[in-house]
Amino acid sequence: MDFGPHLILATLEGAITAAVISLTAVGLSIVFGIMRIVNVAHGEFFMLGAIIAWWVATAVGGHPAVGFVVAILVAPATVGVIAAATDWLVLRRITYDPERTIVATIGLLYIIQQATLMTFGPDARPVEPPFNRRLAIPWVEFGDGGLSLVWPWGLGTTSYKLAVIVAAVVILTALWLVMKRTRLGLIMRATQLDSEMAMAFGIPVTRVYAVVFGLGAGLAALGAVLIVPVQQAHYLMGGDPLLLSFIAVIIGGLGSLPGTLVAAVLIGLSDGIISVFFSPTLAKILATLLVAFVLVFRPEGLFGRRKT
């Protein structure tokens, strides 16, 4: 296969990675932007969403679409409730102190990981996609007769992979509308700007924090449900999403949702393309080096605000 078809396939894989990382990174950015804490266990909420999706889809049985629809409703909601309960049981008790929160979420990471290992075992769990039609992808070729549209044998994708990209766009658009056009979004933005002033105006800040922590975890779980029919669910799958989400948040600017989203798309695309042409390890190395350059030359991130 020529370079052109390879590049098309690599870009498609990168777009799928970008879609999932966008959901996960935006969830992490919301938590940091409003609560001012770093959730090191964010990747384990991603993993938990995939495991619950597998369990629900297996328990429901029948046509794959039925189990998947139930899973995409149940898994993010369950993970969100678990995260909100964690906020109430742990983070609120340590008054959201940044240093103690990092230690607490590291402990939470290992608790979730080992509990999942003991409950579901070390094996990877497949989830059948609700639909999986093979789609051929044409590309333009330059020849003696000018431009021609060709359909290379073996160059294609599946309808489900394209649906993952569309679903991520719809979900992120809905999230933007909630943040900008609803009372809940107004309360969350007010809490982000000044939590003490918000409390003085009667906003229940501790409840807002629980909702925000649950929302961030739910977005990560939602991304996991979307990707688990492409990958497989296992108890160690939270590492890469956590790393790429942190990279996106740092590059985009801590607490900046537009910056995080742009960085997540760029990182996802580059990760997919480099992984296809070279290796996944090289993609992670280059992304980490990019973070180092950003921290040196623009510590507030590409879209972050400079401190005055």
Notes on the protein architecture:
The strands form 2 sheets. The protein has a two-stranded antiparallel ribbon with strand order 1-4. Strands 2-3 form a two-stranded antiparallel sheet. Helix 1 (3-35) packs parallel to helix 5, helix 1 (3-35) crosses helix 9 (239-252) and helix 3 packs antiparallel against helix 8. The model has no long low-confidence stretch (mean pLDDT 86). It has helices at 3-35, 42-60, 64-91, 98-120, 159-181, 183-193, 195-200, 205-227, 239-252, 257-277, 280-297; strands at residues 134-136, 139-143, 146-150, 156-158. It is mainly alpha-helical and 308 residues long. The protein has one domain (3-297): ABC transporter involved in vitamin B12 uptake, BtuC. The protein contains 11 helices and 4 strands. Helices cover 71% and strands 5% of the residues. It is globular and about 60 Å long.
User: What is the annotated CATH architecture?
Assistant: Orthogonal Bundle
Contiguous uncertain segments of 5+ residues: none
Q: How many helices? A: 11
Could you tell me the CATH topology label. ABC transporter involved in vitamin B12 uptake, BtuC
Oligomer: single chain
| H/E element sequence | HHHHEEEEHHHHHHH
Q: Biggest sheet, strands in spatial order?
A: 1-4
* Secondary structure: helix percent: over 70%
Distance between the termini: 54 Å
Overall form: globular
What's the Cα radius of gyration?
A: 20 Å
What is the strand tally? 4
**What count of domains describes the coordinates?**
1
The chain-level mean pLDDT equals: 86
- Major sheet: size, sense and barrel closure? 2 strands, antiparallel
